[in-house]
Each structure stands twice: as structure tokens, then as C-alpha cells.
Amino acid sequence: MARKQRQRAKFQLEAATGEDEVTSSGQHIPNTMVLDALQSVPGINEQKAAEFKRASEAYQSPSGDISLSSMKSLLQTRRMKLKQTVDSNKAELAQAQEDLARGRDLISKSRATLPELAKSLLFFQEIRDYVHDVIDCFSEKMSKIEYLDRKSIMLYRERADNLSSRRRNDVKDIADEVAIGKLPYTHRSSAHPYRIHTRWIICRYARRYRPQSGHSHKLVYNEAHSHCT
């Protein structure tokens, strides 16, 4: 029983270490478990080969003989490229920092002027509402405004007609007075010339001054009108 346990332990040790079994005649018998483990696993070797190929493509070894000067020039070239990249990144970083500082200043100024801008906005909104109210009011009163406009035009036209008529009558009176003055004494009216002249003056005064206001104007107009009739 103990012998079988020792053989089993030896077999497990040989399988773990990968050593070959040796027969009593000195021939080596390969361990089948180790050989099976060393067989290629499908997909693993292809993956490793692809990774190695990509690594070899990423790094291209310099062509020709490798010397100290060529390695030095290659390293200097790479160093210059890296330095240019770093300088470009530093410039972009400085520009970004300047933009950030300007943005912060603008934000602080905007926050400081925000109350005044809010008051201005409120004021202009009130002005806009007031203008809209005025426009609505004018839209409602437009018909009345047009009526008053037409009425004022009619009144001005009537006044112009009255003034024209009065002027024509005045000219007619003057012409009649001149014509009567030039007539012979036998063709003149039997009335006294002074009375005729006074009546024309009174009629002219009555045409010019209508009884608008005042008791005295009304009396003068009534007296002149009675003389004219």
C-alpha cells in the first residue's frame, strides 16, 4: 500500500517537472502529459504572432550599419521633434491660460454690471409697453381724429369763403362810391352823399365784425344791419 502511494507521488512529480521517465534498460520514455501541454493551442500562437508583427512594424530599425554617430543623429532628431511638440503644447497651454483669465475677468465684470443691465432692461420693457398702449389708443381714436380733421378743413373753407365774399362786397362798395362820385349831379341819388358814404362804412363794419361776444358789438352790428337794410 505504501509502495503504490510512493509510485503515485513520483508520477505526479514527473508530470509537474516535465522530466522524462527512464526504464530499467536506460531508454527515455517521454512524458505524454508534458508533450500534450506543449502542443500549440488554436488561436494563441496566431495572436502572439500578430502582436509581434505590430511591435516590429511600430519600431523600424535603422537601415544599414549601426554606428555611434548614426544612433546619436537619430536620437537628436527624435529629441528635436519631441522638443517642437513640447513647445507647441506649451504655447497652446499659455494661450488657453490667457483665454481662461480673460473669461474670468469677463464673468466678473458681467456679474458686477448685471444689476444695472437688469434695471435698463426693465425700463425699456416699460417703454415698450407704453408705446404699445399709445398705438392701441391711437388706433381706437383714429376715426375721431379723421372726423375732426375733416371738420376743421370744412371750417377753414367756410371761413375762406366768408372772407372772399366780404372782400368782394368791400370792393363793390368802393367801386360804387367812386362811380357815384364821378356821376353828374343830376344823375345822383336824392339822398345826401355824406349819408350814403356813412351807410357804406357801417355796412362794411357790419360785414367785418360779426356779433361774436360782447353787448356793444351786438348793438353796433344790429344798428349797422338796420342801416344796410
Automatic annotation (TrEMBL):
Record flagged with keyword Flavoprotein: no
Cellular compartments annotated: Nucleus
Nucleus among keywords: yes
Region named Disordered: 1-28
GO MF assignments: DNA binding
Keywords: Nucleus
InterPro entries: GCFC2-like
Domain of life: Eukaryota
GO process terms (BP): mRNA splicing, via spliceosome
A Gene Ontology term for the protein's cellular component: nucleus
Name recorded for this polypeptide: Uncharacterized protein
